[in-house]
Amino acid sequence: MSKLNQLQEIIDSSDNIVFFGGAGVSTESGIPDFRSENGIFESLNKYGKTPENIVSHSYYIDHTAEFFKYYKDNLVFKDAKPNPAHIALAKLEEIGKLKAVVTQNIDGLHQKAGSKTVLELHGSIHRNYCQICGKQYELNSVLESDGIPKCECGGTIKPDVVLYEEPLNSAVLNFSIDYISNADTLIVGGTSLVVYPAASLINYFNGKNLVLINKSETQYDNLASLVINDAIGETFSQIKI
Fold first, then answer.
1. How far from 23 is each of 27, 29, 131, 132, CA to CA, in Å?
2. DSSP states of 160-208 as a string?
3. Rounded to whole angstroms, how far apart are CA atoms 114 and 96?
4. In whole angstroms, what separates CA 227 from the centre of its chain?
5. Which residues are nicotinamide-binding (predicted)?
6. pTM of the predicted protein model
């Protein structure tokens, strides 16, 4: 039986699926992984720092203007569209098979595709708030600002994204653990499972089918029921839902 047929069979026989995705889910929508070789080269060339350095809490505090320039240029892709993976997952939720999407991405493409239960471990570019008064702002307020986006009260408008050196939102993390630990099938896609603590969520899975779909190998491949080394969107485009 081919791997695609195995995946089809697993999805058909499951009624409590959770999907856990990383940057590879969004690259097929034209959003580059800022931690890729090209991303590292570009940030070192332009800023003299690695992407992890620039997208860190301390860099945000010490070099706020430079942070926002990098953020707008490298982390925000307002016109990106959902790809076949996002669309398939939304359909699986609609028919009651998929219970939640847990994502490391901040682009909001799962919601744009129609997914309702989306747990965003690293936050979202679409939520922004004043660090002084707490007023909420949409993405355009950040994009259209000249330099550092400012609230009418004078506070800095910070994107609701989890920077390096910042903890994950404990409520989002706990909900993610609950969904994963109760799932009968966990499909992990577009992540090499090296960014912690998010990658450790796979250890909470107690169900029957662990499916890993990623272009490259991961350290968890030997634990999986099924490993597909291919693009996640391309894979889901061939599944009947």
1. 6, 10, 28, 31
2. EE--BTSPPPHHHHHHHHHHHHH-SEEEEES--S-STTGGGGGGG--SS
3. 13
4. 20
5. 34, 106-107
6. 0.95
Q: What are phi and psi of 156, to 5 degrees?
A: -80, 135
Find out whether 181 is annotated in a ligand binding site.
Answer: no
Distance CA 160, CA 147 (A): 18
103 labelled as ligand-binding?
no
Going from the N-terminus, what domains does the chain have, and what CATH number goes with each? 3-30+82-122+165-236 (3.40.50.1220), 37-74 (no CATH), 129-161 (no CATH)
The residues annotated with a catalytic role in the active site are 122
CA dihedral 52, 58, 62, 67 (to 10 degrees): 40
| Beta strands across the sheet bearing 136-137 | 136-137, 123-130, 157-161
219 three-class SS: coil
Q: Is position 27 annotated in a ligand binding site?
A: yes
50-74 pLDDT, tens digit per residue, is 999 999 999 999 999 999 999 999 9
Please state the rounded mean pLDDT for residues 230-238: 96
Any binding-site annotation on 183?
no
Structure confidence by residue, pLDDT tens digits, 189-213: 999 888 777 789 999 999 999 999 9
